[in-house]
Amino acid sequence: MAFARRRVPPHQGRLTMSNSRTVILFWQLAILAAVLVIWQWGFEWSKALLPKAYVPKILDPYFVAKPSLIWQSFLRLGCFADTSGFAACIKGNDNNLWLATLVTLKNTWWGFLFGSASGIAAGLILGRSVFLARVFGPYIVALNSIPRIALVPLVILIFGLGDLSKIATAWLVVFFVVFFNTFEGTRAVDRDQIAAARLLGASEFTVLRTVVIPSALAWVFASLLPAVSFALIGVIVGEFIGAERGLGKLIIEAEARANASEMMVAIFVMMFVGILLAIAVRSLQSYLLRWQPQFEPSA
């Protein structure tokens, strides 16, 4: 006996999705509030309720500053609490929080852009040429096996302490991530589609533009999201080893003064920068891959 499939009215479906978003948002905010409460008062509660040997060190404000102290350090580093005024504070501090963030963001962006562009180009070229892939394959594998962090001192020695060395470090990290995904995506293109395009008289460039690149875009964007984070990591590591400005330099200076709250300020700013970059990449992915079902706008 066949049963008719029950159809859900559109307004009821939208209501269910809205309720689901509300529940998810509630739990996200509840978890955040619980973490902040434990972070702020957990160490005192642990000392009052537990034997000294069982008090978790991770809650010690000396190592991980309390949210209230982090907020105070943010106001100070961000020149909001300076008695001389915001403009005077910005002008008088060559590595204030906003300038350091701007420098790190700029270097991350250029390193990500150059690394992604060169990785995509190399992946497409080697993915479309079996001969070139066999010639350059061993060299790429050998270079990829070198830990990128080990190359940072060499990069700084070549390019100096300025922004160029941070961009080069980010490029080194991003290139291989994007290259391997693009290469595999190019090799995975349906051969029947390529044959059909050639049968219709398409040139090699037309095949690349209309068949290969659209088919490989999902592979490319799968690598771009982690590549953004890797670019930021590359820049910060470069700033740790040697830099004139940047969030990494702020962290190293705070570490030298054993100032956990200032370190946490720079870490949280880096987190927000990474989130914004990831959102930008995700938005671009949704636009360029809008023809795929998972990126179609919901009615």
Automatic annotation (TrEMBL):
One of the record's GO cellular component terms: plasma membrane
Domain of life of the source: Bacteria
UniProt keyword DNA damage, yes or no: no
InterPro entries: MetI-like, MetI-like_sf
Transmembrane segments: 21-42, 108-127, 139-161, 167-183, 219-242, 263-281
Subcellular location(s) per record: Cell membrane
Main location: membrane
Membrane topology field: Multi-pass membrane protein
BP terms from Gene Ontology: transmembrane transport
Keywords, comma-separated and alphabetical: Cell membrane, Membrane, Transmembrane, Transmembrane helix, Transport
Residue ranges constituting the ABC transmembrane type-1 domain according to the UniProt record: 101-282
Pfam families referenced in this protein's UniProt entry, alphabetically: BPD_transp_1
Stated family: Belongs to the binding-protein-dependent transport system permease family.
PANTHER family noted in UniProt: ABC TRANSPORTER PERMEASE PROTEIN HI_0355-RELATED, ALKANE SULFONATE ABC TRANSPORTER-RELATED, MEMBRANE SUBUNIT
Protein name: ABC transporter permease
